[in-house]
Amino acid sequence: MFSGLSPQPADGLLRLIVLHRDDPRPGKIDLGVGIYRDDDGATPVLKAVKAAEHILLETQESKSYLGADGDVGFVQLLEPIIFGAEMAGSSRLGGVQTPGGTGALRLAAELVAQSRPGARIWTGTPTWPNHAPIFAGAGLEILTHPFFDAETQRIEFGAMMNALESAEPGDVVLVHGSSHNPTGAELDEGQAEALAELCARRGLVPLIDLAYQGLGRGLEEDAGLARRLLAACDEALLAYSCDKNFGLYRERVGALWVQGQTADATQIARDNMLVVARGIWSMPPDHGAAIVRVILERPELVALWHAELDEMRDRISRLREKLAESHPLFAGAARQTGMFALLPFSPEAVTELREMHGIYMAGNGRINIAGLTEENIERFVEAAAPLLRV
Ligand code: LMR
């Protein structure tokens, strides 16, 4: 039976973890997979997370099942952070916990496929390489629109809007909520407003992927685009990840919300989400979501989390500034936000940087800014600048 399967290449991003780990060179630089790193190149457990884990260890009395929607308190406590105080708790919002942002995206795609046979989703070029397999796996037809030109380091807004003008009512539009992966490029206020207007006018359904809230410009600021789209459109979906902003990567902590036209429609959509979830993962893993809930229930832990999140964001911003100042070819980094920048490297240049200089980055030329340090940034610039395709 398995002879019918064809060989598969290793996942392009996850392969970098192993390649970097097995590289014995002391000066190697890891700008690959999207995890936060401190000045020592470490990804420590946040103090707020450690404190919450202690509380859980002391107080958790049962490991019995919670149900397909997971930790309901976790979902409720995230709502004001994501949707704002006014919208939090609205009967037009239905949320469930999911295994990471990836689980949320897959659940969203399955819900769309069930609601609307033949459904189509628009994704920007470029986007996170896992988006297409997730959506295709659920049976959605994927259409693409231009988003970013790595050579000019600019959003191709006109071309993007032109393409989306041809979308059909009911089409889903994937929007990165903040800190675009892989480009770091963000729509400005006017562009965000124009996109929201277009989605509302043409009856498009935004699916917002919000995986880096707080790591771009701030918790409130990073929610701005999502809130604008939700306010403009009758129906929307929001896939959320706590993996990065709580540093909980391997715990796989996420959630999916649906915004329906009415409270009843929302309830039906949420009930369908639970049926789909039951058929895939049955119930999401508890520990990471419980940690987030314990933090969000306690003002002193919220303050500690905010301070740690601010520190991560400030470090990334400082490195962005430094990279931009180090060479005119990297100037775009200062205009962008979050962990990533997409640089115009050819695949050969990416390989050369890895093999000759021990510098690891995604195959499309994406770098994780958090992997730079005050110490290694100069070496990166010296090796990388001559290889840029401009
Ligand atoms: C990334 O883009 O590097 C992260 O989101 C990790 C992943 O799962 O790809």
Could you please describe the fold and organization of this structure?
The chain starts with 13 loop residues before the first helix and ends in a 6-residue tail after the last helix. The strands form four sheets. The chain has a seven-stranded mixed beta sheet, sandwiched between helices. Strands 1-12 form a two-stranded parallel sheet. A two-stranded antiparallel ribbon has the order 5-6. α4 (100-115) crosses α10. It is globular, with a radius of gyration of 21 Å. Helix content is 43%, strand content 15%. It contains 14 helices and 13 strands. A hairpin with a 4-residue loop joins β5 (148-149) and β6 (154-155). The model has no long low-confidence stretch (mean pLDDT 96). It has 390 residues and is of the alpha/beta class. Bound molecules: (2S)-2-hydroxybutanedioic acid. The site of (2S)-2-hydroxybutanedioic acid (LMR) has 6 residues, from loops. (2S)-2-hydroxybutanedioic acid is lined by residues 13, 33-34, 128, 130, 181. Its cofactor is pyridoxal 5'-phosphate. Belongs to the class-I pyridoxal-phosphate-dependent aminotransferase family. Pfam families: Aminotran_1_2 (PF00155).
